[in-house]
Amino acid sequence: MIVQPATGTAEQAVLRRRAFTAASLGWLLDGFENYAIVLVAAPLVADLVGKNVSQLYVAGLLASTLVAWAIGGLLAGVVADYLGRKRTLVLAILWYSVFTGLSALAPNYGVFIVLRFLTGIGMGAEWGTGTTLLSEYLAPRTRGRGLAFLAGCFGVGFLVATGVWLVIDAAGGSWRWMFVIGILPALLTLYVRRRVAEPQMWEESRQARRDARARQRQGETLDGRDLALTKLTFLHVFTDARFRGQTVKLLLLAASCLIGWWAVSTRVPAFAGVVGAHLPNVEGYSNLAALCYNIGGVLGYFAMGFVADAIGRKPTIFGYFLGSLVVTFVFFLAVHGTGLLLVFAAVNGFFTLGLMGWMGIYPTEVYPTYLRATAITVIFNTTRFLVAAATLFAGYLIDVFGSVSAMAVTMGCVYIVGIALSLKAGPETKNRPLPQ
């Protein structure tokens, strides 16, 4: 059964705006916390461990975030399908705000890793919940733009984090202030609790699940969708023949996308430091490169939504994967001037960061409401265990090769997987209502 969300009434418009505000602010603040660790990793490790230590300490910070994000995302996806999108969103934001604030007090690297892991659980829980919430309010013809704009808020969070760190660093402030600021998202939970409503689509799905289970308890034999409603959503994504092949393909796409970003693109500031080593303020130049990268990424996110609504989801995903592969090789092999690097940092961000927008658009449109949150968090988060290992391996390769660029072009080949699979990932969902 297909349910089209009501879009014509003033009440629906208000509910849609509130859902967008809550999801986008949550994702923006999540992006801030996510990129803060990338920006402060070097001074943090220097402070808590020592200067000129192995790159594995930095990789460990990223890997712990990834593993925790995966766990939190998987748990939250299941919870959101059963408990509700709104309630899960409130819990997620409150969780990561508290542990981010506590991270600012960490006395050593070991304590920080533990607190970062707990923070990552909340950050992972926020994404799938907010994306599902908003997708169930949007009309088919604008869903791509709406979800891409939401995804773009993650990039805006990167941009804000970069700007804030530029100010803190220029003033001689400690990395700890980046995590003190991370307490602020807790205030958003007050807005979500008071102003945001559960989507009608989810309410109907919850009632259908309750009815199916009641009939099953009474001894009635169920089949089809009614039987599916009684099964655990996490297992159903993998065991149901209708979704199994789709899920595997999307998992491979997600792995290609996320390994490319976490293992390669997070090294853009470090590579900028190598190219600009002769400059009097090399750290400031690295931060500027990160700023350019994130400006390009935000534009890439937003552009993906318009392109996906215009020409379709699958051609757009293919184009972004191809662009990511090409620009990774050009950026790390052919760019040597400090001015040109800033330009290509933005181009790199447009494709490699903007590419992640597909995970907020396409998976929401191919899974039904009763397991939508579970499915998209499985796709977005399960691969992060592999990505965490790849991130550690990237740190190892830098030590082995003695070069960020050599590691980047080696690990960047992972985009070939996305190119090969993007046109075969599943049905084209442009202008289609969400499956119920």
> What low-confidence regions span 5 or more consecutive residues with pLDDT below 50?
1-7
Summed over residues and divided by their number, the pLDDT gives a mean of 90
The radius of gyration is 21 Å
The CATH homologous superfamily is named MFS general substrate transporter like domains
| Residue share in helix | over 70%
- The count of strands amounts to 0
CATH class: Mainly Alpha
Instruction: Supply the CATH architecture.
Output: Up-down Bundle
H and E order: HHHHHHHHHHHHHHHHHHHH
Q: Estimate the global geometry from the Cα principal axes.
A: globular
Helical segment count: 20
Report how far the terminal alpha carbons are from each other: 6 Å
Main sheet, how many strands, which sense, barrel? none
Secondary structure category: mainly alpha
Strand % is under 5%
| Count of domain modules | 1
The name of the CATH topology is: Growth Hormone, Chain: A
